[in-house]
Specification:
The complex is a heterodimer.
Chain A lengths: L3 E7 L6 H10 L7 E6 L4 H12 L2 E8 L2 E7 L2
Parallel strand pairs in A: 1-2
Antiparallel strand pairs in A: 2-4, 3-4
Chain B lengths: L5 E5 L4 H16 L4 E5 L1 H5 L17 H13 L5 H11 L2 E6 H7 L12 E3 L1 H8 L3 E4 L1
Parallel strand pairs in B: 1-2, 1-5, 2-3, 3-4
Helix pairs in contact in B: 1-4
The chains are: A alpha+beta, B alpha/beta.
């Protein structure tokens, strides 16, 4: 597993900000690099699944710890 | 289907509905869907440069309980609707147009509007721009 290129801290932000901030961040991430997203919005689980399916980016790791969702996304 | 354009007719000018429109627009923009927003009546009124940051109130059905819930979310740091919309525009593909009839109604010109508004168009131009987009009326 390569290193995280960019982290998006979206903790405390409500929908749709975790996705919007991630969509902004991926523009500056080269293809194949990893983006880490931290979010507390419970809707982000389904939102990130849908967003990655639609944009071609891939969730390579997904965990939840005390209400904080962590996604590691590989840039398409 | 994921890149199907979205067109929003934003008629309402209360903060809850303005926020709903901004959320729908930014979600679509994050998916790479083109978004065309057409501002009518009180939706347009909320985009006046000197009023955009005002408290625009809530829809009547919000009531006292709804207002408390909205205020609580705001206190937790929820971005105001115009910032959410600005972020959607930064993502790209989001265009905001003022309805020319509503401009006449409010007796305003483009100089009176916030920079979030890209221009003015009539309903015919709106339909042509919308094409086969999904159209939402808020």
């Amino acid at each position: 597993m390569s290193d995280i290129h960019t982290t998006v801290d979206a903790k405390g932000l409500s929908c749709p900000m975790p996705i919007v901030k991630t969509a902004q961040a991926v523009k500056n991430v080269p293809a194949g690099e990893l983006i880490e997203v931290l979010a507390t919005d419970p809707g982000s689980v389904k939102d990130f699944a849908a967003w990655t399916r639609s944009t071609g980016n891939a969730i390579v790791e997904q965990t939840e710890d005390e209400g904080v969702y962590r996604f590691v996304i590989k840039r398409a | 289907m994921d890149d199907k354009p979205l067109a929003i007719v934003l008629f309402s000018g209360t903060d809850d509905k303005l926020n709903a429109a901004a959320v729908m627009a930014s979600g679509a923009a994050a998916l790479g869907r083109p978004v065309h927003i057409f501002l009518q009546y009180w939706g347009l009124d909320a985009f006046r440069a000197d009023r955009i940051k005002n408290d625009h109130g809530l829809a009547a059905e919000a009531g006292a309980e709804g207002k408390a819930a909205v205020d609580a979310l705001r206190a937790e740091g929820q971005a105001p609707w115009y910032e959410t919309l600005a972020m959607a525009k930064e993502l790209g593909g989001v265009e905001v147009q003022a309805c020319s009839l509503s401009m006449d109604l409010l007796k305003i010109t483009e100089d009176d509007l916030d920079d979030l508004v890209d221009g003015t168009e009539g309903v015919t131009a709106f339909y042509l721009a919308a094409g086969d987009a999904q159209i939402l009326f808020i």
